[in-house]
Amino acid sequence: MKVAILGFGTVGVGVYEMLENCAGLEPGPVLVRPGKEDKPFKVSSMEAIVNDPEVYAVAEVMGGIEPANSYVAMALEAGKHVVTSNKALVAAHGIELAELARRKGVSFLFSAACGGGVPFLHNLAIAAQSDKILSLGGILNGTTNFMLDAMQAEGKDYGDVLKQAQALGYAEADPTADVSGLDALRKIMLACAVAYDKLPVDGFSREGIESITAADVADFQARGLTCRLITSGGPAGASVYAYVEPVLFPANAPECSVVKNFNMAKYNGENAGAIVLLGQGAGRYPTASAVVRDLCGLGSLEMFRPACVKVRANNAGCVHPYYVRVDADKAGRFSFRECRADGDSVRGVVEPIAVPQMHKLANDIRQEGGSIFFAAVEA
Amino acid sequence: MKVAILGFGTVGVGVYEMLENCAGLEPGPVLVRPGKEDKPFKVSSMEAIVNDPEVYAVAEVMGGIEPANSYVAMALEAGKHVVTSNKALVAAHGIELAELARRKGVSFLFSAACGGGVPFLHNLAIAAQSDKILSLGGILNGTTNFMLDAMQAEGKDYGDVLKQAQALGYAEADPTADVSGLDALRKIMLACAVAYDKLPVDGFSREGIESITAADVADFQARGLTCRLITSGGPAGASVYAYVEPVLFPANAPECSVVKNFNMAKYNGENAGAIVLLGQGAGRYPTASAVVRDLCGLGSLEMFRPACVKVRANNAGCVHPYYVRVDADKAGRFSFRECRADGDSVRGVVEPIAVPQMHKLANDIRQEGGSIFFAAVEA
After folding, report:
1. B258 and B186, same domain (yes or no)
2. What is the ipTM of this complex?
3. What's the predicted TM-score (pTM) here?
């Protein structure tokens, strides 16, 4: 059965190659930009794909919202299954596309959009059918994990490890989506929708790693702690909580052994208990493998179910102690348990505080031109 | 749709309770021993189950080879799907039962037989459809992991942690299957069959944890190493390798953060890369959750495929350095890289040696009445 591929970049080439070696499936036409049809299998018209009766499914790996959204809708309208790795698309239009797929009796799956090669959404969708998911999340961005790990292992500063990540292809030329936590946030949006039938679309708290310095890392290490960028989601009354922030873990925490650009996705099932999945969260073949896994399992699973609705996230009930490094003249805004002066800054651990309140305090300080780094402290 | 349950022990009760809260499924008759029918839903006749047209699937959680094997065959013959947690049954008769299921057009699934709540076989079966599995295995026995972790964390001796594990319900009154590595071996047999269409039925190397002492653990710890009981499988020419033995890991290895009775199942896909799954490998609800997950996914997956055949395992190509503690008068049989005398024993690390050869040397020494402990050293 032929699978058309939209986009022939890093992931698209991987999907093409894997389909050439996959029993029961084969690569079909590949959509490229006009003028790039340098091989007979490359086409530049979406019509050629949706009108091809041999095309059974479409793998969308072009990225971006448009024209990906229109093309996916065209494919679904034409009765083709769709698998995508495009987290921005699914976060923005996933509910509508899943509804269209349901009406047309085809699948709309997106395992590769969250966790790359780690089969997180697939397992979450299955677990949600028979278990109550008490919480979910983890390390869902490999770029920032690589950077935090390199800062800790090599004592380097933020700018240096960012350049290193870019040189290795782990970070894009514009790394904002990764380092700001937006990429991880989109992933937790999808995971909440799969687990709870609730897609959070606003009300988030999101803090990336852009404020971390080598001095911060040196101080965690002296305290025996390791920093990871963590996404957290779970039920919150009629809504869900969903936020991204740096977290400090003690040395024996499993998160500390997640190194380089690896991902660690978790869910806690009322019956299954804590289930953790580790693997490569990005890269040509890991991501392509998640796309092809979905293509092999078409028809057996729904990721966004009919009940799925958009909600405003509610993080008010999420409370942690935080490690804070802040300008000395702003330190009075926090209830430090213990702290010390460090140049013009104060650093230490503050009493437990709700996630939105902590994020708001930091945003206020930054808007005033102040400097702050914070990370939740895992008990 | 009604699911009959064979056996109403730890797992059976968990499956019953989960089915009461599972959309689309409900508990049907439960098979118990004659005289134990103290509730209307309990029956003591397998005929009552296979002849009940409302029973759509059967969950076999009674354990043991017979009568489980006959009952599962009866259910499949009657056109009922079967899900089982019974690794001994699947290792002994799985190929024949899967063939019968195929002929009858029903599913025969056994996720719970390997990894408890960790969805290892399910993910492995999916990955094997589209990726080449380069190796698989991990920590697949929670009882021995609990014991090794407790010995290391508390400095206790083997007999004390075994009693503790029994008191907590982690080890059975007769712990032989766990501590000898037989339970872990059965799991790797199933994993090899799922990943490679090859069920190894002999030619194994198997070493449990029965020889480990507090003095051994103290010595690893002084070297910064942690001991885990590891199962390993992978392709070996026309066959597979499959063995169980203690392995020593450096402190930063992910295996070291697997504590208590947790499991860590791994596979390495040519495209997906290393995928690791962590969770509770046993217990009422984790194991029941794996049974119910399979029940929710009936019809979409084959674990033992038509090509699956029995093979003799071939471990000759698996070579490691080993940590060895052996009677001083037997030490000359090993090429120690470094060693020291410790009372009447010698301990140290020997040059790389093939797995079957190491296991044979140890067996020979024990047959002569000698004492030895060995563990592979992870590079």
Report:
1. yes
2. 0.92
3. 0.94
